[in-house]
Amino acid sequence: NTAMAAQMTDAHRRFLQVLMSKGITEASEARKLHHHCCETDKVYYAHDKLDDFISTINRHLQPLFMQIRKGMSEEDGRAYYAVVNLAETEVTKMASDYTEIELELFRKTMDLIILSENGFASSTDILNLADKLKTKKMKKKEAERVLKVFVEDKWLSEKNGEYTLHTRCIIEMEQYILSNYQDVARKCNICHSLTIQSQVCDSCGIGMHLPCVRKYFKAQTEPRCPQCNEYWSCDIP
Question: Per the record's keyword annotation, is Flavoprotein included, yes or no (predicted)?
Fold first, then answer.
């Protein structure tokens, strides 16, 4: 199989390097980068072959327990690519970048977000946790600084004082979240990837990403659950 034997070229290495340095890249940017890398290294380029190009990189990353994964922004439904470390699905993969107390604040923030009704946690609720941490108490000012760092590093997203998990975090931590929050974590009924901000069917309890809800009900005259066919009572975004 020639595809299986595909060699990792300089173009592949360059693409991987940029992806790793950014942490996460939007699909349209990844397509431009694919084009640029192929052109720079004078290798064959086809605009519709990005996934094949990434598959070749992933085959070479397999022994290193790493993978380029595709995910979706829960906010606008846009596709993103991120490099994921498969060897460590624990939050501890962040341990090299953050102190123990910062990691504890992140874990507690993650709890608040995942256990919430809407996939968000207010800054007030997060800051209230800061002086109840087991590692040691964290001053409010320090907690605000740490939250800012988590946003800059694309683990959290913030909007009007409300925090949710960044797309990068969802792509990276999907397995960790699904196995550690089994009772509440759910996959989207439409795209089958983890959903944090979702609408849930009142009758059967399935969840859908807001962009998936939008897309799915666009073609329906009356919004009915794709699973149980009961009327979808949530407001269509």
Answer: no
| Cβ-proximal residues to 128 (8 Å cutoff; 6+ apart), any chain | none
Beta strand residue intervals within 46-117, DSSP E: 66-72, 79-85
pTM score, whole prediction: 0.85
- The DSSP secondary-structure symbol of 5 reads T
Q: What is the CATH number of the domain that holds 113?
A: 1.10.10.10
**Closest among 23, 1, 2, 7 to 57, alpha carbons compared:** 7
Please give the backbone phi and psi of residue 186, each rounded to the nearest 5 degrees, phi first.
Answer: -135, 155
Q: Which residues are CB-neighbours of 85 under 8 A, at least 6 positions away?
A: 65, 66, 93, 172
Q: How many residues in the chain?
A: 237
pLDDT tens track for 131-166:
888 888 889 999 999 999 999 999 999 999 999 999
Closest CA to 60 of 33, 83, 76: 83
- Is residue 77, in this structure, part of any structural domain at all? no
Going from the C-alpha of 140 to that of each of 159, 192, 193, 196, the distances in angstroms are 19, 38, 35, 26
Please, are residues 117 and 197 in contact by the beta-carbon 8 Å criterion?
A: no
Phi, psi of 26 (to 5 degrees): -65, 150
The answer on 122 and 155 residing in a single domain is: yes
Q: Which of 233, 217, 212 is nearest to 76 (CA)?
A: 212
79: in domain: no
pLDDT tens digit sequence for 31-58:
999 999 999 999 888 889 999 999 999 9
Residue 47 carries which DSSP code?
T
Q: Is residue 156 helix, strand or coil?
A: strand
